[in-house]
Amino acid sequence: MNNIVLLGRLTKDADIRSTQSGKVVASFTLAVDRPYTQNGKREVDFIACQIWGKSAEVLGKSVHRGQRILLEGRLQIRQYTDKNGNKRTAAEVVADRFEFIERKEQTESQGMENFGQQMPFDEEIPF
Fold this sequence. Notes:
127 residues
């Protein structure tokens, strides 16, 4: 089974384009934190991803640099020849779907001040 789930931040806005047959594809890089630290610093993997169709259009219009998304897809390994004639291998995640994890406003906020005001505790609340 080839199934991948990633939670990460877009490193820049997705590159949206259409194929000759009219299919829309969004290509982007996702920065995914590793679950451990090395010498006190958290390491990050930068993973090439793409998504197709209506999902590509939605991602391109709604998700921007720095925003977190959760995506599910599969790992695709492909081989190609570069412009110098060298054989290369590329690994990328082809996403089937994605979910918004935070809004743009949350990405831009600098703390808890945008989450509303603290309410006083009321012991008279019946439960």
